[in-house]
Amino acid sequence: MSLARACACTHGLTHMWHSLVCSRAPPARPPAGSRSAPRGARGQRRAGPPFQFLQVQKAGSKGSVGLIRLQRPQALNALCEGLMAELRRALDAFEADAQVGAIVITGSDKAFAAGADIKEMQGKSFQQCYGGAFLAGWDRVATVRKPTIAAVNGYAVSVPVSLRALCRVPHARGRDSWRSPPAVPITPSPGAGGTQRLTRAVGKSLAMEMVLTGERISAAEAKAAGLVSKVFPVDKLLDAAISCAEKIASNSKLVVAMAKESVNAAFETTLAEGNRTEKRLFYATFATDDRKEGMTAFVEKRKANFTDS
Ligand SMILES: CC(C)(COP(=O)(O)OP(=O)(O)OC[C@H]1O[C@@H](n2cnc3c(N)ncnc32)[C@H](O)[C@@H]1OP(=O)(O)O)[C@@H](O)C(=O)NCCC(=O)NCCSC(=O)CCO
């Protein structure tokens, strides 16, 4: 059983603290529809060195889902530079793979990820951070044009909360424990977009409280705040995320990318600029074969056959 205790903070919000010693976790098993010898994984091995911190494979009945599992259990998937470099490589590979229509990022039962690697950061100087543009490359998760789904299991601390905010269709499981980028006591201030993306996702009050206290919130609170779109029982989470990704992947990849760009404009620009972006992209869909096919299929009462063109 997962042990949980609730305490009300001064703002009247209820925070759940979860012990993650849990016997309910199912044994590790491949997700429904995953390919044990995925073509994508084989292709990536040919293209570069094997992954040390990730498990990368294609999933879904048609292999249309890129599945990335963070796998650094001894450090609760803390996001060291090596892991993030591999994550960029895996995302690049799925971005370039015409078979893949959406990407799922997940962790282990205990931790989605425990934030930036504190042991790696501990000795860094200003010169190393500024000169080396520390954390700058992490935005790759946000710039991927294919839809990304974060299937969040276990601890999601700091950067993963930002990482979740980078992923566009987040799912969480029922007993998650989310913690904001902690301002105190570990780091002086969040540095991977946590103060910006989290605030836009959940609003100033909750973001301010999470950032300043470092307190955790539960998956239910994350859902209520709009930080995740759905919450599932632990044994359903990954299959649900893959099935959502498959559904996205069955649509026109071209039009899905345009729609994603359009929704992101609402997150990143003014209303007027967002509306202009939407209109431009809407008009642009009329130049695609898939727009014609979608409407023709509707009128002819048949399933659309998209060609991503
Ligand atoms: C996630 C916590 C609450 C889990 O606690 P617990 O279950 O007690 O597990 P631990 O014993 O603490 O951890 C196991 C093992 O993992 C190492 N580890 C955990 N988190 C990190 C990390 N972020 N960096 C490096 N290593 C980490 C831990 O040292 C243990 O290793 P041993 O070799 O066995 O000692 C708890 O782990 C926790 O609070 N972690 C820190 C989370 C955090 O504050 N992250 C924010 C980092 S700052 C940041 O992201 C700035 C950018 O915005």
Automatic annotation (TrEMBL):
<dbReference type="GO" id="GO:0006635">
    <property type="term" value="P:fatty acid beta-oxidation"/>
</dbReference>
<comment type="pathway">
    <text>Lipid metabolism; fatty acid beta-oxidation.</text>
</comment>
<dbReference type="InterPro" id="IPR001753">
    <property type="entry name" value="Enoyl-CoA_hydra/iso"/>
</dbReference>
<dbReference type="Pfam" id="PF00378">
    <property type="entry name" value="ECH_1"/>
</dbReference>
<keyword id="KW-0456">Lyase</keyword>
<dbReference type="GO" id="GO:0005739">
    <property type="term" value="C:mitochondrion"/>
</dbReference>
<dbReference type="GO" id="GO:0004300">
    <property type="term" value="F:enoyl-CoA hydratase activity"/>
</dbReference>
<dbReference type="GO" id="GO:0004165">
    <property type="term" value="F:delta(3)-delta(2)-enoyl-CoA isomerase activity"/>
</dbReference>
<dbReference type="InterPro" id="IPR014748">
    <property type="entry name" value="Enoyl-CoA_hydra_C"/>
</dbReference>
<feature type="region of interest" description="Disordered">
    <location>
        <begin position="25"/>
        <end position="47"/>
    </location>
</feature>
<dbReference type="InterPro" id="IPR029045">
    <property type="entry name" value="ClpP/crotonase-like_dom_sf"/>
</dbReference>
<protein>
    <recommendedName>
        <fullName>Enoyl-CoA hydratase, mitochondrial</fullName>
        <ecNumber>4.2.1.17</ecNumber>
        <ecNumber>5.3.3.8</ecNumber>
    </recommendedName>
</protein>
<comment type="subunit">
    <text>Homohexamer; dimer of trimers.</text>
</comment>
<comment type="similarity">
    <text>Belongs to the enoyl-CoA hydratase/isomerase family.</text>
</comment>
